[in-house]
Amino acid sequence: MLARLRGRHDVNLWFWVFVGPFFAGLVLFIYVPIGWSVYLSFFEAYNTVTPTEFVGLANYRDMLADPAFRDSLLTFVVFAAFIVPTTFALSLLTALLVARTRVMQAFFRSVFFLPVACSYVVAALIWKMSIFSGMRSGAANALLGLAGLDPIPWLSLTNPPWYWLVIVSARLWLQVGFYMILFLAALQRVPTNLYEAAAIDGAEGWQVFRHITWPQLLPASTAVLLLLLINAFQAFDEFYNILAGFGGYPPYARPPLVYLYYTALGSGQNFGDGSAGAVILTVLIAVVALAQTRLLRLGGRD
Amino acid sequence: MLHERRRYVVLRWTLLLLGTVLFLLPFALLLRGAFSSEGDLTSGTWHWLPPTWEWGNLAAVLDNRTVPLGRALLNSTLIAVSQTVGVLVLSGMAGYGLARIPYRWSGVVFWLITVTLLIPAAVTFVPSFVLVSSLGWISTLRGLIVPGLFQALATFLFRQFFLSFPREIEEAAALDGLSWWGTFWRVVVPNSGGFAAAIGTITFIGSWNAFLWPLVIGRAPESWTVQVALSTYLTAQTSQVSLLFMAALVAILPLLLMFLLLQRWIVQGVERTGISE
Amino acid sequence: MARPHRPLPTLSRRRMLALGGVGALGASLAACGDNTGREGSAGQEDGGGSSGGRPSIAQWYHQYGEAGTQEAVERYAADYEPADVTVFWKPGDYDQTTAASLLTDSGPDVFEYGNGPTIDMIRGDQVADLTDLFGDTLDDFTPSLVERMTYDGKIWAVPQVLDMQVLVYRRSMLEEAGIDAPQQIPDLVAAARELTRGDVKGLFLGNDGGAGLLGGPMLWAAGLDYLDGEQVGFHSAGAPEALSVLRTLWTDESLLLGQAKDWFDADALISGRTAMQWTGLWTFPAISEALGDDFGAIPWPSMEGGSPSVPVGAYGSCVSTRAGDVQAAKDFVRWLWIDQTDKQLDFATSYGFHVPSRVSLVPQAEVLSSGPAADAAGYVTEFGHAQTPLLWTPQCATAWSDMMSRIVRDGADPQEELDALVPVVEAELERVTG
């Protein structure tokens, strides 16, 4: 009994019993790798993860001078410019539609939410082989066929870059339901008396949304924007599975992680450059996230 | 509550039904593909339903010794289950320790944990690969499971949750002579089921659908997850598109079932993980 | 069109030929380096070394898609008296797995590798010199294959069987349009344009419009090559014109694109969506089953100053220098891939169509004795080119295929693109020959 009580007050020991296993793992699997990569990024390392020859900042110079790497950053910007606003608008729209519906609300919510269960790999398969197959039998081409138009080889062309339609729509399908849930939760938190007051004032439709709903959704909106941007930065799965093929990856629509994958782990096996690239990306994303968090705070969240 | 004009109602229902069709269409196409014959899938004409239903596709994909789909399903299950359990235990304990145990450096430790939230794991896959390969864990279940056990976000959420946990109950337990350990397992855990279910389901889905890390680590077919196995045949050349669809169907069925059964917890999990990042 | 169920991924030999065009061939370069522990699930089965009196040999193959291949190689192994040979059948990313395993003791003793070992394997002393196994049979092997597996005057692998890519056309469709099988590139461009009618396109070169596969054949058509010995071979007059032919085909909209089954399947040709298609010899059984004799095969046509060509590739049987008993492993390779001509013939022709790597066996291959298959096989000695040279590293291949995609799909200026490629290739040549 006494021993137990002492144990209870042996704060240091108990803290580490509870937090230690997790913290040790976090250090080993996040801090150590990043530290090692920073170290490795100053060395040449072909086909090996141990440093061979010190090259100073040469790997960073290589990466920043590599047009393919800079292109990959540009690809991210283009992708984010497509995906962030469209996901935002669509998930907000579906949330508003579902929230307004009393009949079959659970059904509609499930319908929009269900794709969240699907993996990017499976979605890529459906998009590549069924919806945007280049043949007349593809869903999109069958639709064009109804309008008397020729089939389009969606993934073969770079001009116009139809592949963006394929990639963006796949991600929309997968993630709209997720953000819809966030907006739905935020909508439920809007006090009903605000609506009642608005109704008394004779406000309707768009006015209600503009003056009542939207201001209440602002905090959730900033959070959604941050999440969307960070997720866009991590884009890999659908790009890889839709565009990679036998011959490797085409030189377009190559986001940073795909580029890094081929540099470090594909045929390149160049861990020096790969580590430098990873460090650059890590710094970039951390800066973006910090800036966003700052904005988020300014936006009025705790 | 609000008077809604007729045209708004019509517009709303039109959009809802259109959205429903668009969102369910990919599932329908997956089903169609899974039960189509190869020739119908690659022919030049569109069909809503398979002209001939190939029920044999299911047996064909499961019997197939050259595609380790059974093994991949087993791997995915092992990984998702152990990561879910592991994350709940590790992050639950850590979250509790951070929330309740008044350790001097608790704030520093918490800061070191939350700062990693700024860096998504995917971005550091090269460094992680370097470490895991040095441990000799390439193509092993260890390599696939262990690095995913340490989720800073889950710990953060658990901490927030335990901060809001009624202190009186724990104090009563302490007076009864329970140690931190006893209080946690006998008093706190039994009252945290809903929250743990929310975090657990989200972890499970994320783990089952994970792709980049299993792709990087699972080099040998024995260590492929379902997603990696599918991707291998999608990005390589497939002679049998229909079997690929069937394999994909088999791969998402467990999750779809889970979704229908556990939707409440999943929705809660999404709300918490989404809002709090 | 019900077909018998075949294994889901037909990752057959065609795999290697397909990879050849691009980086992955040399993906070679080990998966992860010295520290790659391969113990655990993957490693346990890969025993090698000797036990008891008879040496034991671990022999690795990638997973062939054609039914019966695995049983066949196991049968061959069982027939070998002097040693216990165990066959390991490896699905998935064979090149990377194998390359990584060579760094460890759990690797193979004897293994096949696409177009022979990579330059990095040879320079890293990972594979044994097999020159003395050939003896006077050397002249009997297809020269382009032997040349591809030779470095520093030594031969590093024994070619097993040969795969080839070739241009296939529908006789009836050409006849109907009054067109002869094209002999020259301008004829091909004109024919492709002529044969394009609505949904039916003139030519199918793959979903990327030939960017991945036909850069090499276009160089050969102009009398050039990737490399000229240890020098850049593509940076000469004629190269920009040659590569821009593919762009012309693209802008003419003569090319079929967006197919569910890419160039390695003859589906597009069989179903009549294209009149001509670039594909592999392995599709011939399927084509003749569906079309009878309504098809013909020709090499990729030539331009002025060049010659027609067919890319050829072969898995080469190699011996690891970390083998338990290198001499025993070499003896086995000599027995199977040099002495046992009946087994080589069986391997080449009983499980899909392939050309025996030994010229003297070609006439004995019944499936290759008549029709388009015979024509195609005949092109090998006359027009055969190894897909890419030994010194053409993965970095070169990636830069090349990126360039080809820009030229063909985006209409980039070939001269500027080639100029920009030169330093990349020279740096790689410097790295591997310096």
**What general form of chain A does the structure show?**
globular
Mean pLDDT across every amino acid position of chain A: 86
Greatest contact pair?
A-B, 112 and 106 residues
* pLDDT < 50 stretches of chain A: 1-7
Q: Kindly provide the radius of gyration of chain B, computed on alpha-carbon positions and rounded to a whole number of angstroms.
A: 23 Å
Assembly state: heterotrimer
CATH class of the largest domain in chain B: Mainly Alpha
Q: What share of residues are in beta strands of chain B?
A: under 5%
Number of strands of chain B: 0
Q: What is the helix content of chain B?
A: over 70%
**In whole angstroms, how far apart are the ends of chain A?**
43 Å
Strand order within the widest sheet of chain A? 1-2
Q: Overall pLDDT of chain B, averaged?
A: 87
Give the domain tally of chain B.
2
**How would you sum up the global shape of chain B?**
globular
| Structural class by helix and strand composition of chain B | mainly alpha
CATH level 4 superfamily of the largest domain in chain B: MetI-like
- The helix content of chain A is over 70%
Please give the CATH architecture of the largest domain in chain B.
Answer: Orthogonal Bundle
- Helices and strands of chain B, in order, run as HHHHHHHHHHHHHH
Helix and strand content put the structural class of chain A at mainly alpha
In short:
Chain A is an all-alpha fold.
How would you characterize this protein structure?
- The complex is a heterotrimer of chains A (302), B (277) and C (434).
- With 302 residues, chain A is mainly alpha-helical.
- Chain A has helices at residues 2-9, 11-40, 58-65, 67-100, 105-113, 120-131, 139-146, 163-188, 192-200, 205-233, 237-243, 256-265, 271-298, and strands at 43-44, 53-54.
- Chain A is built from 13 helices and 2 strands.
- Chain A has a two-stranded antiparallel sheet with strand order 1-2.
- Chain A is globular.
- Chain B is mainly α.
- Chain B has 2 domains: 6-60; 66-276, Orthogonal Bundle (MetI-like fold), CATH 1.10.3720.
- Chain B has 14 helices and no strands.
- The longest helix of chain B is centred in the C-terminal third of the chain and has 36 residues, at 241-276.
- Chain B is globular and about 75 Å long.
- Chain C is an alpha/beta fold and 434 residues long.
- Chain C has 2 domains: 13-163 and 312-386, Periplasmic binding protein-like II (D-Maltodextrin-Binding Protein, domain 2, 3-Layer(aba) Sandwich), CATH 3.40.190; 164-310 and 391-433, 3-Layer(aba) Sandwich (D-Maltodextrin-Binding Protein, domain 2), CATH 3.40.190.
- Chain C is built from 17 helices and 14 strands.
- Chain C has helices at 13-20, 69-79, 94-101, 119-123, 131-134, 143-148, 171-176, 185-195, 215-221, 239-251, 267-270, 284-291, 326-339, 341-349, 371-383, 394-410, 414-433; strands at residues 56-62, 84-90, 110-114, 150-151, 154-155, 158-169, 201-204, 227-228, 231-232, 274-280, 296-298, 310-319, 355-356, 384-386.
- Residues 1-16 and 18-51 of chain C have low confidence and may be disordered.
- The interface between A and B is large, with 112 and 106 residues.
